[in-house]
Amino acid sequence: MNTHDTLAALRFAPLVSLDVLAALAAISLLVLALALWRRARGVGWRALAFAVLLLWLAGPTLVRETRQGLADIALLVIDQSAVMRIGDRAAVAEAARREITAAAGGMGDLTLQSVVVPDTGHGGTQLFAAAGRALADIPRDRLAGIVAITAGQVHDIPARPDWGKAPLHVLIPARGEETDRSLRVLEAPSYGIVGHDVTLRIEIDDLGVAHPAAETVITLRRDGDPPRREPAPIGTPHTLRIPITRAGPTVIELQADPLPGAVTALNSRAVVTINGVRDRLRVLLVSGEPHPGERTWRRLLKADPAVDLVHFTILRPPEKDDLTPLNELALIAFPVRELFQVKISQFDLIILDRFQNRGILPPAYLRNIADYVRRGGALLLSVGPEFAGPGSLSATPLADILPAQPQEGDGAVAEGAFRPEITALGARHPVTAQLPGWHDGAPPSWGSWYRHIAVSDVHGQVVMQTPDGQPLLLLDHVGKGRVAMLLSDQIWLWSRGHQGGGPQAELLRRVAHWLMKEPELEENALAARITGGRLEITSRSIAAHPPETVTVTDPEGHETAVTLTPAAPGEDRASLPATLPGVWRIGDGSRTAYAAAGGGDPIEMADLRATATKLAPLVRASGGGIHWLVPEGAPTLRRTMPEARSSGAHWIGLTRNDAHIVTGVAALPLLPAWAALAIILAVVVIAWRQESR
User: Fold this and answer.
1) What is the dihedral of CA 124, 129, 130, 132, to 10 degrees?
2) pTM higher than 0.90 for the full model?
3) pLDDT at residue 8 above 70?
4) DSSP secondary structure, 621-633, as one string
5) CA 356, CA 388: separation in Å to the nearest integer?
6) Could you tell me which of 375, 632, 595, 583 has the C-alpha nearest to residue 479?
7) Which residues pair with 549 in a beta bridge?
8) What is the DSSP string of 553-605?
9) What is the DSSP letter of 557?
10) Which DSSP state fits 83?
11) Which terminus of the chain is more exposed, N or C, with fewer CB under 10 A?
């Protein structure tokens, strides 16, 4: 800035004390009063002489300052909160920022400082908090003005400005006041019990609309199921009942019909994730006879507090007659009809452990078990030599749902030590993939079994086998349900630690959860979730194939092709940013997954309109202006005087403060002693001549 000299002030440096100066002034007035009373001639000249004398004694001095001008400072506040990512607002705002920065750069007496308002994720847009931190370092006598590029959704507007008289200008990246339809979730549970309904409370509001409609239609989508539509009032809370049909997370998308002319459809959507949990897992375990593995099953199931176990062991077959009194053979009678007809649908899993057809279950009840599976039930069979005998379940109505039949002949029951192995399919199946103790290409580290059942007519998925390729663990889909068959009764050896034992608890847990359709054990599944602002995609498949490509559709409907990367046998993954709130859809043509990205900041997402309503009072009070950036772009930048107008139709003004610092001070006496003496003598001579006439 320029340096210049300025007469800054008139100061007095008395040659005598003020008391003496006052006394001399009083004497002078007394003498002049006496002269006036006598009507003496030359009184005016005497008064002039006294005045010059007193003025000289007062020591008048002109102060000259050397001043260096300082550039004014303007603050540019750039809103980058979530509301600025709607539509093309960010691009329009960035273009305006470049124009204002370039214009300010051409003004030699102005410095432009920029501050960014980040998306905090809570508390809404804190524009003035960010501006306040920058203003703390700017002297108020140098502040030329504040220019804020924002959509107008600011949540920390102060009651009165604390930046002095500088104007506030607001530039909004839109064409004018906008409308929006907002759908808010008032109440939503985090968990729901499978088989029961949960209740959601929502409210729909039309914002910026002079006369909103009385109601609209809301569409409910649940994990890709066919959409459900129902009317909902506007401006009044509304209740929805959602059935929870399976365990695991259920993503529910709610969308109100779009408001004509609304700025975006994002705000008319809401996403709720409800984790489905089973109240109690009801498991029916029927052991055909006492054997060493029976206790293994019971301990495993009783160890889980969420399992409600009903266990029966057939101690005495009907054909046995040893004259033992019935009251000494069993504690209670086997409630066949109640279990396999009346209450069969209430069980989540039925386990038949070495069960054989001895007439205890009539064919009608066995047929009920088969129908139970086809309707969506789960059946696990652990078989031993009885499966190859005359009482085999393969000769009952259950045969239609069994994944294998016993081999005919004497070789059906194979004896001899062997270590179970994971098949190539099993290495990709979530039930047996990465099972502890198994390493592909190396012998398993678990203990041996000594008996298995040879089978034929195998269908379904063979995930475990003997070293010579005979099936050991079969998994199969039957209708809406599932069946698993373990072709050995020797797994209890692992629980006893034989030869180091084995992962029998983990294996049986996975089998049971797969049978009950737990999402994390689906063998051909596409799953997605959003954590930390990123979309994590996981694809599981039991079929070997090249890296697959999925289509990701964001909440605004934009599609992106994403190639997955192999992460483990049977598992491919991908990760990409997910910043938009709403439901993200991932599909590969046959499978579809959904992930919910919440708004993160409910205050921010409550109203996505571009509006000047909130900031208008503060802008008017500061003398600034509000300008819409579409379609004209940024207004022209001007320098204005402090009391002049600061905004026009297409321009904004930044105050010229003329701030400076003093680099030097010089004092110049106005009445030197020689000049005062000469004037006084001249006036006295004139006064004497007047009196002598």
Assistant:
1) 160
2) no
3) no
4) HHT--EEE-TTT-
5) 10
6) 375
7) 563
8) E-TTS-EEEEE-EEEETTEEEEEEE--S-EEEEEE-SS-EEEEEE--S-HHHH
9) S
10) G
11) C
Residue whose C-alpha is closest to residue 53's, from 1, 16, 80:
16
Tell me the mean pLDDT in the region 601-609: 81
1 within 8 A of 70, measured Cβ to Cβ: yes
Element (H, E) at 27: helix 18-37
Residue whose entry in the numeric block shows the structure tokens 């007095």: 12
Q: Which two tokens stand for residue 187?
A: 């109440």
Domains and CATH numbers, the chain: 3-68+662-692 (no CATH), 71-177+610-658 (3.40.50), 180-278 (2.60.40.10), 281-515 (3.40.50.880), 522-597 (2.60.40.10)
Cis upstream peptide for 233 (omega within 30°): no
Q: Which two tokens stand for residue 408?
A: 């005919």
Helix axes 18-37, 43-58, angle to 10 degrees: 180
Nearest to 168 by CA among 76, 236, 263, 40: 76
Q: Which among 380, 387, 588 has a CA at the least distance from the CA of 485?
A: 380
Predicted pLDDT of residue 241: 93
- β partners of residue 319: none
Six-digit token pair at 57?
């004694």
Beta bridge partners of 668: 62
Which one, of 670, 681, 691, 693, lies nearest residue 58 by Cα? 670
Cα–Cα distance measured from residue 193 to residue 189, given in angstroms and rounded to the nearest whole number: 11
Q: Which residues partner with 456 through β-bridges?
A: 405
DSSP state of 136: T
Return the structure tokens found at 404: 């294998």
Torsion of CA 603, 609, 612, 613, to 10 degrees: -60
Other CB atoms within 10 Å distance of the CB of residue 209? 16
| Of the listed ranges 20-29, 207-216, 505-514, the one predicted with least confidence | 20-29
